[in-house]
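User: I've been trying to design a sequence by hand for this structure and keep getting stuck. Would you show me what you'd pick, starting by listing the structure so we're on the same page?

Assistant: Good idea, let's start from the same input. This is the structure you sent:
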């Protein structure tokens, strides 16, 4: 069972299609300022009332696994590919996982 404060439910309503709050309240039990709803019903309603994702807002897929494989095979790699002599402190993949960053040796 999921317990949601009504103020929290209304606060996220702008992230859902119209009718979301009413549907949650219809499926749940309201006691005071809390609605209790079964997890399965809540999940169905979240999916049903999800806003469509536009192509412009989709992020490109992270290339981190392929980049990590290239780093591990590189002669400049240190620490099993977690850092290299050119970019010290990769922070365990944060540098590689950002699509805007590029390999100092041009390997990705």
């Amino acid at each position: 069972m999921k317990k949601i404060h009504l103020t929290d439910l209304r606060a996220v309503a702008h992230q859902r299609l119209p009718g979301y709050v009413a549907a949650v309240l219809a499926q749940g039990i309201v006691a005071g300022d809390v609605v209790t709803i079964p997890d399965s019903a809540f999940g169905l309603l979240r999916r049903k009332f999800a806003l469509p994702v536009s192509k412009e807002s989709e992020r490109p897929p992270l290339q981190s696994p392929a980049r990590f494989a290239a780093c591990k095979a590189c002669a400049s790699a240190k620490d099993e590919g977690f850092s290299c002599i050119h970019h010290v402190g990769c922070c365990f993949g944060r540098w590689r996982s950002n699509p805007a960053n590029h390999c100092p040796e041009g390997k990705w």
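That's my pick for every position. To get oriented when you compare it with your attempt: The first strand starts at residue 2 and ends at 5. The chain has a mean pLDDT of 79.
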